Amino acid sequence: MAGVRTRDLVFATLAREAAGLGVWGALSGLWWLVFGEWPGLASSALTALLFAVGPVGEYYRSDPPQRRRGVAAGVLVMVAAFVLVEAALDVLLPALADGDLDMAPGLLVSVPLGVAAFARVAGRARSLRPEA
């Protein structure tokens, strides 16, 4: 994974998020058939998040010395994006603030942005490293 581009990593993350949402939809339908109610919508974001960490996990394992700055940048961007999306939704759609749907959009937007920041910082640190 040494030559992976940030764009490819983000697209792989988005594709896996979509797959996670599809799996969540199938499991929700099964849950509804068995128990007669829908599961919480926050679980959709959690399922998508669990599916989405695969590509960045492989990139993380590929170069241990350069990953600390990338992880720090990714986490900071994820938190900032999550807070901004949640604040915007609370202002624009206040009815969602009390419901179970308020967390999902923030997570679904912040994860690809965090992956992009991680890949960008870790890739830049890798390209600046002197070849031995």
Q: What does it look like?
A:
With 132 residues, this protein is mostly helical. The chain contains four helices and no strands. The relative contact order is 0.18. The mean pLDDT is 77.
Please give a quick description of this structure:
This protein is mainly α. It has helices spanning 6-35, 42-62, 67-92, 103-128.
User: Radius of gyration in whole Å, from Cα?
Assistant: 17 Å
Helix content: over 70%
Terminal CA distance reads: 19 Å
* Proportion of residues in extended strands: under 5%
Low-confidence stretches: none
Shape: flat
Number of strands: 0
Main beta sheet strand tally, sense and closure: none
Return the domain count.
1
> Total number of helical segments?
4
Q: Could you spell the SSE succession in H and E letters?
A: HHHH
Report the mean per-residue pLDDT as an integer.
77
Structural class: mainly alpha
Summary tags:
4 helices, 132 residues, mainly alpha, flat
Topology:
Blueprint: H1 6-35, H2 42-62, H3 67-92, H4 103-128
